[in-house]
Predict the structure.
Amino acid sequence: GQNIDQPTEMTATEGAIVQINCTYQTSGFNGLFWYQQHAGEAPTFLSYNVLDGLEEKGRFSSFLSRSKGYSYLLLKELQMKDSASYLCAAMDSNYQLIWGAGTKLIIKP
Amino acid sequence: GAVVSQHPSWVICKSGTSVKIECRSLDFQATTMFWYRQFPKQSLMLMATSNEGSKATYEQGVEKDKFLINHASLTLSTLTVTSAHPEDSSFYICSARSLAGETEQFFGPGTRLTVL
């Protein structure tokens, strides 16, 4: 079957760094997405990885290892506004997104 | 960038009534649109995939007669919740993809449905 695993909740301190892990199993693979979702709002796109390695985009970076079925989202210099849920989604061979349950990130001052 | 709108943003209705939610791609043509439902503190659940001009493909467990989807044009898809009940209260989100095989989906802002 198809499955995405990510931690339910994480807590970090303002100004620090946090890494949110995601493991996936899909029928075929066409890339790994990370989305940010604030409460009551739709998801917003953060990153897309289809090749192995690290993609850096400002304070956010995303890493992919296809052989391990593993990705992480790295958030640096955390700000209070980064408090949100972070959704990992893998795209299968039919270009369908398989969604993780999301990781709620709590930022403390 | 690609923009997707949804209307209404929120709606409150009485049990037994029907509610229509519109999803529009504003600056691109969407060959495929997706409808999701999200309950509080849960992840997105794909309800159905609709391709312009053809019938929607529903996920297992989603009643096609209750959740009517129409994708009549390349910029508009509608979801009608028929005979709504309180358990249908949820956050409904659409997303759109411009070309078959193109990876990124663009999300609408979502519609909060409350059925009394």
